[in-house]
Each structure stands twice: as structure tokens, then as C-alpha cells.
Amino acid sequence: MSASVNARTWILGSATVAAGLIAGFFYAYACSVMLGLAQLDDRAFIDAMQRINATVRNVWFAASFFGALPLTALAAALHLRRDSRPALPWVLAALVGYTAAFLITMFLSVPLNEELAAAGVPATIGEPGAVRAAYENIWVTWNLVRTIASTAALACLVRALLVHARTTRPIIGGRPSPASSTVTA
């Protein structure tokens, strides 16, 4: 396998792992975290979300959240060559999907989280029900959208890996291996 094929494989694989971690992160909120928090009273809900939002900004989250976008973009750039183009549409679709999830996070979720933090200490908030109402449903709705977008991006990257693998099979005995002779996207 050539160095360029190796690089494309590793970058595409790394983008897929990073996207998978983030899709799983958003999915966990959609199917468990927010459902559990919905059962709390207003002050407890606000307190829990403020604590979660304060701790999510860590190196482990940052590596996958901020890494998935440039890794996917780099994977797209590396698949521009003629011999690697069969995977390109899938990588580009993943780039669009993950970009949507990234932008939703940066321009909707994060500002909502900052507003919730600015509301102050939950025990001293005058109208915790109003603070929660201004946050919860909007946040949950947009988290579902970014979950779908990031999961779609992950699915596209997995498909890109499969197409990439079929198009980069080694030549055996002077002829391409059977799997590399018929490539379909």
C-alpha cells in the first residue's frame, strides 16, 4: 500500500472515529441525559445543566468535537485525486452533516448554555421555571437535530471507508484483487 493510500486511510479512519464519538455524545443526551433531567424540579434541572456545561469543556471532548471537522475536511482533500474519488461524495456528505452539527453547537447550544450559566446560582434565581422554559425545549430540539446530522455524517464516513477499502485493494499476482475490479458507490 502506498504512503498516500495509507495517509488517506488513516485520516479517513480518524475522522470516522472522531465523528462517531461526537454522534454518540449527542445521542446520549437525546436518549438518556435529557430524559433523566426532565424529571427534576426547575432548580435541580438548572443546577445539573450548569454543572454539566461547566465540565464538558475538557480535552477529551475538545479532541473529538474540534477534531472531527478538520479531519473530515482533510479526508475530503485527500480524496480529490482521480484514483480516490469514489469515496469523495461520501466524505463530502459527511463534511456537510458534521458542519451542520458543529454550527448548531457553536451558534445555538453554546449560547443557550451561556445564558443558563448567566442566570446565576439556582437557589437564588427568582423564577427558575421561566429560566428553564427559555432553555430546555429549544436546547433539546436542536440537540436532536445535531444528533441526526452527526449520525448521518458518521454513516457517510463509514460508507466512505468501505468504498475506500474496495478501491485500494492491493494488486495480487499482477492483477487487481477481485474486490477492486468492481467499485460502486
Description:
This protein is mainly alpha-helical and 185 residues long. It is built from seven helices and two strands. It has helices spanning 3-37, 42-55, 59-78, 88-118, 128-133, 136-167, 178-181, and strands at 171-172, 175-176. The chain has a two-stranded antiparallel sheet. Helix 1 (3-37) packs across helix 3 (59-78), helix 3 runs antiparallel to helix 4 (88-118) and helix 4 (88-118) packs antiparallel against helix 6 (136-167). The longest helix is centred in the first third of the chain and has 35 residues, at 3-37. The radius of gyration is 21 Å and the shape is elongated. Mean pLDDT is 92; it is low at 179-183.
Q: Can you give keywords for this protein?
A:
disordered C terminus, 77% helix, 185 residues, elongated, two-stranded antiparallel ribbon, 7 helices, single chain, mainly alpha
